[in-house]
């Protein structure tokens, strides 16, 4: 339930009520601002959509030309590859792999590399994946690799994929970073491998012709074109979403480099599915505007009819088309669009702000003029209502008592605690709602109020209608009439949780957790008043016989059960006047007040006998354990003797009992000799 605070009471006077003006202004202005904002937002959305289309329209020519350029570049390599395989030098070397024919074909490969400088490697592989001829192009020079430098490419993926090729088919690998001897080349060399099958004159497979197309210049040309565009981000990605080209170069080549952290899907998850599943499109996300198109570098839409006819013998595998279905993406972040928008320009912001400010000023002026007509409020009634509400629903109980303790006024909070209605409480003495123990406290409290103007922190236990009780901390101020105590205005705070916690803490501090008996500290505290008296006092030191053996043989769970049984037997065997405690381990102590030596002996012997006759069972078993105890008894000899001294004598007697056979009661020497 909400409890009223003093700060909830409004300041009411005959001046302009700015709080009311503010609330009404906020309510009306919110409504007007929502309508105004909705209208502006509609205009803004239409304007932004048109602006985005306009910006992207300028990019369409670039997208089309880039797509055609990339397709043409890749198709050119296919034409060169086809023309090379038709060379007679190929046929001569295949039919007769002499040194002279090897040199002639090597010269053809060198000329091919020197002419088409983007051919990083030109190779002829045997059917089992061994390089037969290889020419590398580096730093502007074509170099024939000597035979001892040729490598085995059986484990390379492009060789494995090419083993299913037929004559006239071409396998084209995905673009990736080139490896030499199992290591990525530095600097990076992005390559696409073109592989076709070479037959001999008998139309039997004789080897594989492989061209490594170095795509560095192709990608650098793409990046250079992107820098000339608007401040959008141009990207090329492969079908898996790895970047072939990205404005953040560290994100490129995730398919080849293990330490590249991101794919397109990771940075733009909301855009990935659309880009992946559609050939072309324009769409908006929370991050900005995306325009994408599939490049399909092995498509034939950019090649003349004549070129298509020339290529009829070359068939590109469907898998090659699939793994090289690149996506060209232009991404315009929201910031780029905003920079071109009137709504984000300084002049636009000023105009929009002025529109809202002007509307607010007019509305505020109208509300002030209207509020000035309402200045004359009857605020006394309002204050009275607020104070009454504060009194009734305060977080503490309030009641007023007459000089006899009769309740003459009580608030709603305290009535809810009591569970009574106001009619059931008014006119009753407050003591009738207290527990017997608290009634005496209340009587003294009421008497004190007659001589003191203020009393604080009196703890009372109140009896509710539902028969449960709770504790309150009560404070009261007395009001005099004609010089005599007349009325007490009282406040009460429910402190039940605090009392319960204090009792729980006291129990934890004073009780042995295992046996629920007093612990050592509590025993000494309880024994203090006994030792301060003139009573005769006998003290037992009790120890479980062979307890270590029980723990070792049966485990500590059984040992704990033995200790619990000893405690239970002590509680039932000894009188309530006896102070009983567990000192620690298997040691227990008993203090018997107002008994003589015979009575002490009988009590100790009774406890020993009952313990001897008790039975403890192993857990989940019917196996019995017989437990005995040894008891050392000492008496306080003179009044000034401390509890530690008596404990020492009892402990010595206990030692004697244990060393002379156990399961017995032994009195300390001074008890036997009668020196007490």
Automatic annotation (TrEMBL):
InterPro entries the record matches: Diguanylate_Cyclase (IPR050469), GGDEF_dom (IPR000160), Nucleotide_cyclase (IPR029787), PAS (IPR000014), PAS-like_dom_sf (IPR035965), Rev_trsase/Diguanyl_cyclase (IPR043128), Sensor-like_sf (IPR029151), VP0354-like_sensor_dom (IPR048760)
Domain PAS: 383-446
Lineage of the organism: Bacteria, Pseudomonadati, Pseudomonadota, Gammaproteobacteria, Alteromonadales
Domain GGDEF: 535-670
GO molecular function, one term: diguanylate cyclase activity
EC top class named in words: transferase
Pfam families per the UniProt record, alphabetical: GGDEF (PF00990), HK_sensor_dom_bact (PF21623), PAS_9 (PF13426)
EC number: 2.7.7.65
Protein's name in the database: diguanylate cyclase
Positions of transmembrane segments: 25-44, 350-369
Keywords from the named record: ATP-binding, Kinase, Membrane, Nucleotide-binding, Nucleotidyltransferase, Phosphoprotein, Transferase, Transmembrane, Transmembrane helix, Two-component regulatory system
Reaction equations catalysed: 2 GTP = 3',3'-c-di-GMP + 2 diphosphate
Keyword Transcription: no
SUPFAM superfamilies: Nucleotide cyclase, PYP-like sensor domain (PAS domain), Sensory domain-like
Subcellular location: Membrane
Superkingdom to which the source organism belongs: Bacteria
Principal localisation: membrane
Keyword set includes Transmembrane: yes
